[in-house]
DNA sequence: TCTTTATGTCAAGTAAGCTTTACTTAAAGA
DNA sequence: TCTTTAAGTAAAGCTTACTTGACATAAAGA
């Protein structure tokens, strides 16, 4: 699943570590999500959406499977 | 995390098993999510939103942790 | 050059999402 | 009463999300 975290971070001048702190996850988790290694949990997606003042759909892009 | 799956199902006259099929998960998964046993993954939340023609935020309600 | 900061990655472990199988209960119809 | 259907639940196992700790690299500044 694609996401706009890197850009949203850049717009706010946040490092991966700072974003991780704000979302109460590890830096490695942010890195892995940005790199597409895995998808965030739904609660984490909600947290990120709230933090950035956006909807989940604005941040994460679902690829339609079929 | 609260959700409106049961009501959305009822509005469309779907059983848990039918919804499970439509979302490609097991009936037990739907039951567990409806009963609040665990949260769906983000991909599953996207699927449900697409199926019902709603946003994730319309279906799942995040409780603000702090 | 030396140090610091940000990012990337890996390995091992825990926790949560999800599966299959199976049993139980309640409601409704024949 | 017997059967069927929907819902609830539980155990065991697999997969994925996430953790901590560690190491590597590149860029930038003193």
UniProtKB/TrEMBL annotation, chains A, B:
Protein transport recorded as keyword: no
Keyword hit for DNA-binding: yes
Superkingdom per UniProt: Bacteria
Alphabetized InterPro entries for the sequence: Cro/C1-type_HTH, Lambda_DNA-bd_dom_sf
CDD domains documented for this protein: HTH_XRE
PROSITE patterns given in the database record: HTH_CROC1
Molecular-function annotations in GO: DNA binding
Protein name: Helix-turn-helix transcriptional regulator
């Amino acid at each position: 699943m694609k996401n706009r975290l890197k850009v949203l971070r850049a717009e706010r001048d946040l490092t991966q570590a700072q974003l991780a702190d704000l979302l109460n996850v590890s830096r490695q988790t942010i890195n892995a999500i940005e790199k597409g290694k895995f998808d965030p949990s739904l609660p984490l997606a909600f947290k990120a959406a709230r933090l950035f003042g956006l909807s989940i759909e604005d941040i994460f892009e679902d690829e339609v499977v079929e």
